[in-house]
Design goal:
The protein is an alpha/beta fold. The protein has helices at about 10-20, 60-80, 80-85, 140-150, 165-170, 245-260, 305-325, and strands spanning about 1-10, 25-30, 85-95, 115, 125-135, 155-160, 175-180, 190-205, 210-215, 220-225, 230, 235, 270-280, 285-290, 295. The radius of gyration is 20 Å and the shape is globular.
Length: about 325
């Protein structure tokens, strides 16, 4: 058994890191918010949580995305979605700024990958692909992972910490994994910033993942065990948590354009509004080691897409250093 490790943050990245590291280390997670909490100060419970590969990704980022997909794909096959919240669904992805589908890096990763004919595209879209993908319901998945970790002996401490020294004092550990998301700003990274998102939960039997990218960012994400879908999306510089009523109508119009008016009869007065803040960072995802601190944050709206790949990289960074000692 390796030396003990502390992880700051109990969002999807912190939990994923704990799942990987707890196989060889005694792990303590310190976080203000824990799975099951629904405060707006953390992002993981509110994410759209779809496995949607990021097409503009470096080789190392692609590697992390591949590893994360494999984890969720395996989980979906070994655990019922009513427990894990992880569900395999058909995905349709449209682009209005992309014409070279042959160059998409994840064409060999996603099962049942196929390029759409031009006749299958919505108006103003230039290309599209279909494949099998994964939807995650954070309301189920986060507590599921926490339960698995507690069985392994991972300790959860509810506390907001303001320094790595405080973490070490509380846990007696040397190595600290910083998976604090937006909280990384308080720990010294001034490039971290919250990104406001607004979505809607709609009761429906619609059971396909659909997304459009380019000049707009629109999606429909069915949620396992919820009886409905998450509709979005939008990114904004606003920092308030008030629902933008006009935006609701705009989201619904955009969703109907990519689903052949599947939600034409939806009454916006009956939907559940969701406003939350994603952990953005100037410079993007940060996964690196500085001394005895391993940083793992900054994925913005792609936290679930990267989560277990980031966790694997965190493990590599820790084990590489141990091998040199």
């Amino acid at each position: 058994m390796g030396e003990p490790i502390a992880i700051i943050g109990a969002g999807i990245t912190g939990l994923a890191a704990a799942m990987v590291l707890s196989l060889d280390h005694k792990v303590t997670i310190i976080a203000r918010d824990h799975p099951g909490d629904l405060g707006l100060a953390w992002a993981s419970p509110w994410a759209g949580a779809i496995y949607h590969p990021q097409k503009d990704a470096s080789a190392s980022e692609q590697k992390m995305q591949r590893a994360s997909f494999q984890y969720y794909w395996n989980l979906a096959h070994r655990e019922d979605s009513s427990k894990s919240g992880v569900l395999i669904l058909p995905m349709t992805e449209y682009f209005d700024d992309w014409t070279d589908e042959q160059s998409i890096w994840y064409r060999d990763l996603m099962p049942n990958y196929q390029i759409l004919n031009k006749s299958e595209l919505p108006e103003n879209c230039t290309s599209g692909v279909k494949y099998a993908s994964i939807s995650m319901n954070p309301v189920l998945l986060l507590p599921y992972l926490m339960q698995k970790l507690e069985v392994r002996g991972v300790k959860f401490v509810r506390k907001e910490v303001m320094s790595y020294e405080e973490v070490r004092h509380l846990t007696g550990t040397r190595i600290v994994v910083n998976a604090s998301g937006v909280g990384a700003k308080a720990l010294g990274d001034l490039s971290v910033k919250p990104i406001r998102g607004q979505t809607m939960f709609v009761k429906t039997k619609f059971n396909e993942l659909v997304m459009r990218e380019g000049s707009e960012y629109t999606y429909v994400i069915p949620r396992a065990g919820s009886g409905g879908v998450i509709m979005g999306g939008i990114k904004s510089d606003r920092m308030d948590a008030e629902v933008d009523v006009e935006l609701k109508s705009d989201i619904l119009r955009r969703v109907n354009r990519i689903t052949n008016n599947a939600f034409d009869e939806i009454d916006l007065e009956t939907v559940s509004d969701i406003v939350a803040f994603r952990p953005g960072r100037d410079g993007g995802l940060r996964v690196e080691r500085n001394g005895d601190v391993v940083h793992a944050y900054g994925a913005a709206g792609a936290g679930y897409i990267y989560s277990f790949g980031v966790a694997a990289r965190v493990q590599e960074l820790i084990e590489q250093t141990r091998a040199r000692l």
